[in-house]
Each structure stands twice: as structure tokens, then as C-alpha cells.
Amino acid sequence: MDCTLGEQVMLLSLEDDTGVGQEAMRTGLAVTGAALVELALLGRVAVRGDGKVVVVDPAPVGEPALDPVLGALAGRDKPRKARDWVELLQKDAVNAARERLLERGLVREEKKRVWGIFPTRRYPEADGSVERELRDTLASVVHEGAEPDERTAALLGLLHGAGLQKLAFPDAQGKALDRRLTELAQGQWSVPVVRDAVKAVQAATTATIAAVTAVTLT
Predict the structure, then answer these.
(1) 176, 138, 179, 126: which is closest to 9 by C-alpha?
(2) What is the DSSP letter of 22?
(3) Spatial separation of the C-alpha atoms in residues 64 and 97, rounded to whole Å
(4) Cα(110)–Cα(93) distance, rounded to whole angstroms?
(5) Confidence class of residue 216 from pLDDT cuts 50, 70 and 90?
(6) What percent of the chain has pLDDT over 90?
(7) Where would one find the signal peptide in this protein (predicted)?
(8) Average pLDDT for the chain
(9) How many Cβ atoms sit within 10 Å of the Cβ of residue 149?
(10) CA 66, CA 71: separation in Å to the nearest integer?
(11) d(CA 9, CA 5)
């Protein structure tokens, strides 16, 4: 399999030279939600009318960043909503996406200490070809009117829902970019199950960010 949607989100979030991650909380939520959407693309899960994620095919897909998520979903007797999974699986999903980028040779790991005390890890770019191709694809859809495939549409929906569109389009005007992404979301989905998964993840991400922000401000 090519890079998963979660890996693509992670790639876009890492600064090429320093390897510093941008918008860590939002990126983590988007990476986790991306795993659910990817499984919907592969026909393994669906979102019911009540917003709960159900497994329709528990067969592993052979992708280390996705099979643990599918196993966790399949291991529950009762379905849970996307928000529950986005919050519950965030740490593991982020670590898995990062490890796969390392395994693919797209980033490298640098271990440092802040003030000589606190250990940190950063992930600068090692091979920029995949990210460049990804950015070109996204730009062709958003700026040039190209028709997106299902995966590209899903990625744009994830970025927009998490408020991360600036990672892919740092120079774009905010309001104009929001309008364009909203337009793309309307009538773009050929597979309803994927559309429903993206919408569920968008709602879960928005709700989680709002909850964390409210706690921070109190």
C-alpha cells in the first residue's frame, strides 16, 4: 500500500528541515480519524445512522498502521462513536504513522535534549518526493479544478475538519480556501460509506478540539 491517509497528514505536519511537528493536537486527531476513514475506503468499517462505527469485515488489510485499529474496533462487543475512537486510539495511531514514515525512508529520527535535560525527538525530511507529489496533487484539485479521487477527497475533508488546511496550503487566503474545500465536499463522494466516515471524523475532531479548548480556557 502507498502511504496511508494518516501518514500523509503526518508528512504535511512535519517541517522539512527541522522535523518539528506543527499543530500537534489537531494533527493527532486527524491522523487517528484518518485510520477510520482509510478502513472505510477499504470496506472494513462503516458509520451507522447513529454515528457509531461498525466493523463490516474484520479481515486484516496487511498494513501495520491500520490493522491494530481494525483489531480494536472488532474487539468491542458494542459499537462506539467515532469521537470515542479518535480519543482512545490517538497515541497509538500517531506512533504507528510516524514509524511507517521512518520505515519507508521518508523521514529520519533525530534525538536531542532541550536545555541538555529533556529528551525530544524530531523527524526531518529524508526523501521529499512523496510529499512533493502529494502537495502537487492537492494543489491541482484545489487551485486548478482537477477532479479528486476518493482518497484525495477524503484527505482534504480530514484536513478541513481538523482545521489543518494551512498545512497543505500555507500561502492560500483562509476564507477563499475554506470556500473551495466546502465546495469540494458537496457532491464529491462516489462512495457514501466513505463520505459518512469523513463526516463522522470531522464532527469528532471538532468536538474534541472544542472540549480541550474549553478546559484550557477555564
Answers:
(1) 138
(2) S
(3) 9
(4) 20
(5) low
(6) 59
(7) none
(8) 89
(9) 12
(10) 9
(11) 6
165 burial class (0-12, 13-18, 19+ CB within 10 angstroms)? buried
For 69, the domain range is: 5-217
List phi, psi (to 5°) of 53. -90, 130
CATH number at residue 47: 1.10.3630.10
pLDDT at 218: 60
C-alpha cell at 168: 497543505
Q: Where residue 144 falls among pLDDT bands split at 50, 70, 90? A: very high
- Nearest CA-CA partner of 122 in 110, 106, 114, 113: 110
Beta strands in the chain (DSSP E): 45-47, 52-55, 80-81, 110-114, 118-122
Number of folded domains that form the chain: 1
Considering the entire predicted model, what is its pTM?
0.90
Find all residues with CB under 8 Å of 124, minimum gap 6, and list them: 14, 15, 16, 17, 18, 19, 107, 108, 110
Chain length of the chain: 218
C-alpha span between 45 and 54 (Å, rounded): 6
